[in-house]
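Morning. Coffee machine broken again, so started the prediction first thing and wrote up yesterday's gels while waiting. Chain of 206 residues, entered below exactly as on the submission form.
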Amino acid sequence: MKFWIPAATTLALAMGGPLAAQEPHFGIGVTVGVPTGAFNSTTYGSGLRESHEAALGLQFTASFPVDRSLAWRLNLSGQTFSGHLDEPGQARINTQDSMFSIGGDAQIFVGGGNAQRHLGTYLIGGLALDLERVSDSYDDPSFYADEVTNKSRLGLNVGIGHSMRYVGRWRWNFEATYHKTLTGHDTGAGDLPAADFIRLGAGVTF
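Came back before lunch.
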């Protein structure tokens, strides 16, 4: 698939930078994904309405500083969005969209930020390979999956973060990013809808 080429290039850059970089910084955090646009709610011509709710997730990062202002970052994250399919006169169908993402980001530290110490404000931009498992079911809350679809797509992540006061090597880290599905979202061709959402995260980096 063509989208694997830019994704692989970005991940290679994220991992190749350390050859000339300083000691890496590792992080772990909790995230909240808030669906936006059609992923939040959309109504099709038949009156069928599809919606998704906010989801908790986890994020693991490894940031490799190249100089004072730039770092390449490996970003692993996952979350499961619960949702519904509602159509007039029909029983509600429950849905789940579980996403595991393998991403490569550039972190550009601005102002007095320092990539080598992972302190200050930074901008985020990168690509991710999104591995999704979408299931539908009439059974709630045990959620016996009546139908399951697996999909791999390319996603874009852009946003801003801030790393602040620390004890020893520990820093408090806060991020707000926007995730957009770039490929495989043509619903007219039978693809799954794009999984676009805002991700808010908080955690520690050391």
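Residues 4-16 form the longest helix (13 residues). Going to sketch it on the whiteboard this afternoon.
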